[in-house]
Amino acid sequence: MPTSSNTPRYAIAIGSNRRGRHGSPTDEVAAAVASLTGVVAVSRIVASDPVGPSIRRYANAVALVDSADEPPAMLARLKAIERGFGRRRGQRWSARVIDLDIVLWSGGPWSSPGLTVPHVAFRERDFVLGPLLSVAPDWRDPLSGLRVRHLHARLLPTLPRVDQAGRRP
Q1: pLDDT tens per residue, range 54-80
Q2: What is the helix (H) or strand (E) element at residue 152, kind and residue range?
Q3: Cα(78)–Cα(108) distance, integer angstroms
């Protein structure tokens, strides 16, 4: 999704499922958004079930960020923010105060040690595609060529059914 100023744009997924110095996971996500520079759009914060061994629900959002940084430099910025929030490397999918991931970059695909863009699992994650749909429905996945709206529509039939109160029948 190129910008009108030709500045590269990133879609950044933000998640938290542990209280931190800013408060609840929702507060941590909001504080992480505030710590990003170049933000041009932010989805609403949504709740999601955990992936992996964690038992705490997550607060998730997506921010669109304009930056001339190449993906490794953007990743370094995001990791510095995570460290500033008290994030420590540990068990994969464990409880965390903040998680910031590059989902998409307007420059297309990128691959280097420790970084793959687009994010390898974003197509299967409603907690990423749902918020991303609200801020960038027409952004094309550079690998499949499908727009975010189409990726989300493909994902919907695979999601567990829930009643109006959000409970699984």
Answers
A1: 678 899 999 999 999 999 999 999 999
A2: helix 148-155
A3: 19
Q: Which two tokens stand for residue 168?
A: 């699984």
Token pair, residue 99, equals 């998680």
| Residues 6 or more apart whose Cβ sits within 8 Å of residue 16 | 25, 26, 28, 29, 32, 58, 59, 96, 97, 98, 99
Single-letter residue type at 57? R
Distance of alpha carbon 134 from alpha carbon 46, whole angstroms: 11
Q: Are 75 and 99 in contact (CB under 8 A)?
A: no
The pTM for the full model equals 0.87
Q: Look up residue 10 and give its two tokens.
A: 């990133």
Identify residue 153 by its one-letter amino acid code: A
